[in-house]
Amino acid sequence: MDEMRLLRHFEAVYRLSSFSAAARELRLTHSAITKSIKALEDGWEAQLFNRTTRSVIPTEAAKKLYPQAVELLAFAANVRRSVATEQIEINILSGAGAIEGYIHPAILKFARRYPEARINVATMQAHLAADELLQRRTDILVYHDTSFAVMPHKSQMRLTKVVDEPYLIVYRPEFSSDLRNNSLGDLLLHYDWALPVSRTFEDFLPAKLRTFLKNEAAPRYRLANQTACIELVKQSDLLTVLPGSLAEGLVARGELSAIPLPADFRFAISAAIHDNAGLEPALNHFIDCMKAL
């Protein structure tokens, strides 16, 4: 157990590039962290960091040790949790759209096989979420494919496509105008929109469309929340876009009307687990539950 403690201290120093920051995170003194690293270096007969008054630079030995230390610490944490509680716990980081439309139905399906499992879901910027997965502080990432396209550490992830469907433009049934036979540019220019996207998402749009949105100061409202956009559309002459399956349910209930989005944009969501977590059946089953929706 003492060596696990030393590895935990090493992992924090390496990740934070600072003895002081590691001490603060672990709520220890600077001296305690320094002694732990010295003990690890002496025990393994390898220098792990080159230290100066202003920097902490990992050696080649540290670079080799770090990913294995992360794996070992994560494995130990999982074993400790399972022994102590006999309970499965899954941590998920996601974009807002996936939480609203796809994760909570998957939880219901997952609970039929694992009724005692604990599931924690939170949102986080995609590039930060990638680090959480690499450090094994989360188990599953669920993001739009545009986010995965620029996400770091993809070589250490196993990705599975869970959703791939077209977007529909939705509006309230009493909407005063005929929206059919309009180009996307005309619709963006002549109507007000509430879109469940962020400026980061817009960075992945085609250059011509990005320029158009910037020049026309569109959309009027950006809300990283599909439910909020739906409620705005129901009560005004705003337009929004929704994944086809979600829009079709609202249309079937008579709550909204819809037309195809006149552009080749798709709601494409994938789930990622750490490449070394592929044999964990609960994680794979949760992803299967998402695919089955």
Structure description:
The mean pLDDT is 87. It is built from 13 helices and eleven strands. The chain folds into three domains: 2-83, Arc Repressor Mutant, subunit A (Orthogonal Bundle), CATH 1.10.10.10; 87-163 and 268-291, Periplasmic binding protein-like II (D-Maltodextrin-Binding Protein, domain 2); 166-263, Periplasmic binding protein-like II (D-Maltodextrin-Binding Protein, domain 2, 3-Layer(aba) Sandwich), CATH 3.40.190.10. A hairpin with a 4-residue loop joins strand 1 (49-51) and strand 2 (56-58). Helix content is 49%, strand content 20%. 29% of the residues are buried. The longest helix has 26 residues, at 60-85. By secondary structure, it is an alpha/beta fold. It has helices at residues 2-16, 19-26, 30-44, 60-85, 96-113, 126-134, 145-149, 184-190, 199-202, 207-215, 226-234, 244-252, 281-291; strands at residues 49-51, 56-58, 89-94, 118-123, 140-144, 157-171, 194-195, 221-222, 240-243, 257-260, 266-274. The strands form three sheets. Strands 3, 4, 5, 6, 9, 10 and 11 form a seven-stranded mixed β-sheet that branches. Helix 1 (2-16) packs across helix 2 (19-26), helix 1 (2-16) packs across helix 3 (30-44) and helix 5 crosses helix 13 (281-291). Residues 1-59 form the HTH lysR-type domain. Belongs to the LysR transcriptional regulatory family. GO terms for molecular function: DNA-binding transcription factor activity; transcription cis-regulatory region binding. This is LysR family transcriptional regulator.
